[in-house]
Design brief:
The chain is mostly helical. It has one domain. Helix content is 61%, strand content 0%. It has two helices and no strands.
Length: 51
Amino acid sequence: MNDTPQRSRAVFSTEDFGLMKEAIGEHIKKIADDPRSAKFSNLYHRLGRLG
C-alpha cells in the first residue's frame, strides 16, 4: 500500500491564464466607474504573473 499523497492535477493550463487575463481586461474597461474595478485590476495583474 502506498501512503504517499498523490499530486493534484492542474485545473487551468498556461493558455487559460492568458484567456482569463484578456477577458478580465475587457471587463475592466466596461466597469471602469465601478468601485469593484480595482479588485478586477488587481486580479488582472496577478494573472499576468502566472502566465
